[in-house]
Amino acid sequence: MIDEAQHDLAVEYVLGELTGEARREFESWLASDREMQVLVDEISEATASLVHAAPLRPPPASIRTAVVGNVRTVRGAATATAARAPRWPWIIAVLTTAAALALLAERQLGRSPAGENPSATAAAESARAAEAAAAAEKEKRGLTGRLQLAEMQAKVHVEQIAQLGEQLAKLRARDPLGEAIVAPLKPAGSGPANGTVVWNAADQRGLLIVSGLPAPNDGSEYQLWLLDTATEPARAGTVALSPEGDAAFAFRPTRPLDKVTSFAITLEPAGSTGPMSPLPVLSGSGSTAGTP
Amino acid sequence: MSGFHDPEREADALLLSQVAAAEPTALARFYDRFAPTLFSLVSRIIRDAKLAEQVFQETFAQVPRLATTFDPTRSSALAWVVMLFRESALQRARPLPATEPPLPTAGDRRPEDLAILPGEVRGRHAQIRSVLAQFTAEQRQALELSFFSGLSHEQIAERLGTPLDAVKMRIRRGLMRLRESLKEVA
Questions:
Q1: Which residue is closest to A36 within chain B, CA to CA?
Q2: Is there a contact between B1 and A37 if contact means CB atoms under 8 Å apart?
């Protein structure tokens, strides 16, 4: 499930606001998160549609000549090879000849309708044959185009299947339990409160269990932080306590992190989005459990 | 992965693949279909007419080479080419002056000659304009400063004297509304 902060991150990525390390981190996350990939694609489409907000201005005709020469196209024929001569002129010839032969046979067998002008009938038949040939040509071009597109998509899909196969092999080789960091949380002073964080950097998600925390004062709340050695502490959610002072919840950070080794719970003003308070209520470090 | 349910989108993807394959007339057809939209975009980002023409022409010359990197399963050809021209224009645009008056809203604009757009583009153009017309002036301004001026969320917040969270929300909701609108069509 993508939250608002992650959605904003995706928007900033599409708009080119993420740069340097932040961009690389996001792309690393993006490469392994299907849901985020879909969101980024959709945001890109929505962002690009803003092009229609620009006041319309036609480019000078000289630019067209400079970039495409004097090639003429039929307006609206985006996929038709309009300026090209038909690829299969023999179709027109065959159909026209067939129509002419049919007409000749009819006349020789005396089956021309009484009162009809034979030359007018022949012209009409030729016109119909030409129309049929043109329609066949158009359909053929459309089918050829769709085939080209399907081939292009198939090529992309084959590459994607290969990439997914590699990812799947890596995932199968993984030992999630062995990769997880387990960190016991201890109070800064004395007190009954304690907790445990289990964090899996590969999945960018974790689990917090705490007990014995006193209820926060009015206007305050407990917040969980992930301390990454490479960046600023990242907020991972609000700790909602039961009446007994316990809490257990799964979390995801608001941005990708790959060097998390410590965790902290701080008391912050309710709804705060500012930096982490310097005095944690509970904190602790951990290391990977290792492969059994 | 974005779907391929829109015939217009399929046609555009095919056309771009033909440009990449250097098929005769493909680039000319691509130009006739997208140039008015893209030139309007570049002119909106770069206010200097001569420089806008130069950047548009230079970027267009890159399209056949870059089209080989287009992945039709990840984006539409329109989105791909719009983001290409936007990035190119933003790199060459002068910084937005701090004293520049606010951007015009839809109602401030003069009637436009839609005939410069190919027929198949006019429908989408009108649809997006219709969605944008439903936005508040503040939302439009945030979106346009972001898209056409390349300002970060923080810069927009500072420029408009608006809290950062409010700017993020306006942009997020605006793009979500546009996204829904595009899905309705597809």
A1: B1
A2: yes
Q: Which tokens sit at A278?
A: 């310097």
Q: What is the ipTM of this complex?
A: 0.89
A13 within 8 A of A40, measured Cβ to Cβ: yes
Using alpha carbons, select from A65, A83, A233, A228 the residue that is nearest to residue B23. A83
The tokens describing A203, both together, are 């999945």
How close does chain A come to B65, measured CA to CA in Å?
14
State how far the Cα of A62 lies from the Cα of A65, in Å rounded to an integer.
5
d(CA B24, CA B30): 11
- pTM of this prediction exceeds 0.90: no
Question: Mutual orientation of helices A34-49 and B164-185 as an angle, nearest 10°?
Answer: 90
SS3 for A201-215 is: CCCCEEEEEEECCCC
**Tell me, what DSSP letter sits at residue A222?**
E
The closest CB to that of A44, out of B28, B75, B110, belongs to: B75
Do the Cβ atoms of A189 and A176 come closer than 8 Å? no
For residue B1, is pLDDT > 70?
no
The pLDDT, as a whole number, for residue A104 is 56
Cβ contact A46–B176 (<8 Å): yes
The C-alpha atoms of residue A29 and residue A252 are separated, in whole angstroms, by: 12
Q: What backbone torsions phi and psi does residue A246 show, to the nearest 5 degrees? A: -105, 160
